[in-house]
Please model this.
Amino acid sequence: MLIRYSVENYLSFDKRQILSMAASQGTRHKDHIIEKSNHKLLKSAVIFGANASGKSNLIYSIAFSTSIVLNGLEKVDLNNKYFKIKKQHYKKPGVFQYDFLIEDKIYSYGFAISYERKQIISEWLYTGEENDICVFERVWEDETYSIRTDMKLKGSDATRFKIYCEDYKNSKNLAILKKLFLSDIALRASKDSEYFRNYIEVLTELANVIILFPESKYQQLGNVAKNQDLKELFEKFLLCFDTGIEKVENMKIEFDKMFNDAPKEQIDRIKQDISNKIHKKGTLNLRVNDDVISLNLDNQGNILASKMLLNHGNDENLFECSEESDGTQRLFDLIPLFFRENNNRLVIIDEIDRSLHNKLSRKFLELYYELSKNNKSQIIVTTHETSLLDLDLLRQDEIWFIEREKDHSSLLYSLNKFKERYDKSVEKEYLLGKYGAVPVFNQFAEED
Model:
């Protein structure tokens, strides 16, 4: 579970900004709190702010940093990612840190990157209530890395750690400069090691983060039409959200017709590539022009294709996914977040209200709170929908604002610092500008 996240010198974030999921002393909405090992963590954070304030940049920073952890620095675009308003920030590090509560242990993991040198310049993992135990710390000094730990290692753990550290002293190996120690060692070390289990647990937590942007497409929707339990659950949600869809159907289609007039050689190469992927995954789900396509192999190795269709009450005239409204298509990607496979995970949604009616956005959050009572999932969303600024829906410490400062940097802060009464009309006060984070318009001057 996420305790806090911080970012510094990335896009519109200049100085360090912190998003905390630690619950305050407030007593309302107790079901919005996860209590674990004497810690109280919030199930949600809902972030408001004007256009160009930095809401999406916060989500981008999480996607950017988790991508570095999972794929390495060479897989991300570092160009113009620093706070460009200040030119000298090209030479300042970008810093990202996550604090997690995993089982009964607190971890603080972070790293700093150099935009100028395009490399990792420091990385750290601490544990303990006061982050007082250094699992490892990696620092770039004198054109090489030094790595240390405060933990007393014995036997094979001590030997392996020494070998791994020696690997990272070879600064001529360019891959080392762009690789994070945490993810590299977590994938190489034994799962039976008590020491290296720290690495594995943190990497797993970061790998399980789900991030949805407005243009994101959920790739596993093809399973809905084939798995009866998922199909029935999906239909219940579609009915709950008043989409007009009564059933989800699955129609076989000819695989070759998906490619129209493409050359035979090209189709053959695509078939071979798809067959290899199906052998590895079992089923391959694709989103083609907003339609949901599911691919499998028969006993002879031929590719079988099917398309998910929607029944609005007429069995003879089914609708393709691409024919549904933007709001319904948005729900196709949000509803699977309620599936059991996504329990106990951190879900992050940029612009949750995109293409949705304001009552539907609220209903989504209400359902989330109701259905996640017995798990450790958390959700972070950004929105322009001010009707969600309601203390009957959210706790004060769950409401966050992002404001663009005079120097164009983004400032992140919680409503909790204003200590409002529980019966206050927060939406009205926000629109009046009491909390900031609203558009400020200048006079439009026409030329004579």
Remarks:
- The radius of gyration is 24 Å.
- The chain has a mean pLDDT of 90.
